[in-house]
Amino acid sequence: MRGNRLEVWGDPIAHSKSPVLHAAAYRALGLDWHYGRRRVDAAGFAGAFAALDDTWRGLSVTMPLKEAAFAAAATRDRHAQFTGAVNTLLLGAEPAGFNTDVGGILDALAENDICTMSRTRILGAGATAASALVATAEGGAEHVEIRARRPERAELFRALGERLGIAVSVTGFDAPATAVDLTVATLPSGTMLDDRLVAPLSDAGGALFDAAYAPWPSALASIWHGGQVTSGLAMLLHQAIRQVRVFVHGDPLHVLENEHRVRDEMRSALMGD
Q1: How many other C-beta atoms can be found within 10 angstroms of the C-beta atom of residue 265?
Q2: What is the predicted pLDDT for the residue at 124?
Q3: Is 168 helix (H, G, I), strand (E, B) or coil?
Q4: What letters, b where the CB count within 10 A reaches 16 and e where it falls short, cover 199-222?
Q5: Domain Shikimate dehydrogenase substrate binding N-terminal spans what residues (predicted)?
Q6: So what's the pLDDT on residue 180?
Q7: Would residue 66 show up in a list of annotated catalytic residues for this protein?
Q8: Strands lying side by side in the sheet with 143-147
């Protein structure tokens, strides 16, 4: 039987709200599990992972470890295979890797009644951007534009678009902005963009789903006037619910017992943190 110890790893990690979310979930489920946090950088991941014993049940991982977690997994779910990123590891004889960010984005968009995304723009080209691309493709996007500081480093998104069956274009932040239904910002918290770049993106950007949540409003959200604005807290909550499903049932789609109550407890803990 797997152990009852869990942690979130990343660098930086002190800001993570995952311990608050998971503690609320396991309390609501009546499980005596322990969820902490640890600062682990990319260079230290392999050693820290190898040192885990059978008292450990699983890990949540955040930047910059999602690719390392992907490599450490013996099996990977469909969303992890698409994105090349794992944010959840279920431990055992063969570690299983999952990407719950994709489902978390989809659930957050649905919760906020954002269902029009035929034409989507994604700002950024990291692991979260890949998850956003998969999520919006599954949500009905037909064309996705990726805006990156270094467009030449984002060409892999074109190949991912082909696998998903949608058209993907890659451009810089200063390219002319065409109208889209939805903008998904995956830029690091605190990222500042020049006003001359943001203004046209906002005017033609439709609804804004910003993966950032601390501080909030983000620099981008504070000046967005193209449509509805949603913070990354919704994604954080819903990806965590899917992580709890993995740690309890081994399946991000296996609904928890009394999940509506568990979700409410997690949301209350998140808002009160």
Answers
A1: 19
A2: 94
A3: strand
A4: eebbeebbbbbbbbbeeeebbbbe
A5: 8-89
A6: 97
A7: yes
A8: 167-171, 143-147, 119-123, 182-185, 207-210, 229-230
Whole-number pLDDT of residue 152: 85
Instruction: Decide if 195 contacts 220 (C-beta within 8 A).
Output: no
Domains and their CATH numbers in the chain: 5-99+243-271 (3.40.50.10860), 115-227 (3.40.50.720)
Q: Which residues pair with 146 in a beta bridge?
A: 122, 170
Give 261's DSSP letter.
H
CB burial string 36-56: b at 16+ within 10 A, e below: ebeebeeeebeebbeebeeeb
Sheet containing strand 75-76, edge to edge, reads 34-39, 5-10, 56-61, 88-90, 96-98, 75-76
Take residue 152 and report the two structure tokens written for it: 């030449």
Got the DSSP string for 197-249?
HHHHHHHT--EEEES--SSSS-HHHHT--SS-EE-THHHHHHHHHHHHHHHHH
* Regions of the chain with pLDDT less than 50: none
Contact 89, 67 (CB under 8 A): no
What pLDDT digit, counting tens, does each position of 64-88 carry?
999 999 999 999 999 999 999 999 9
Task: Name the catalytic one among 22, 37, 57, 66.
Answer: 66
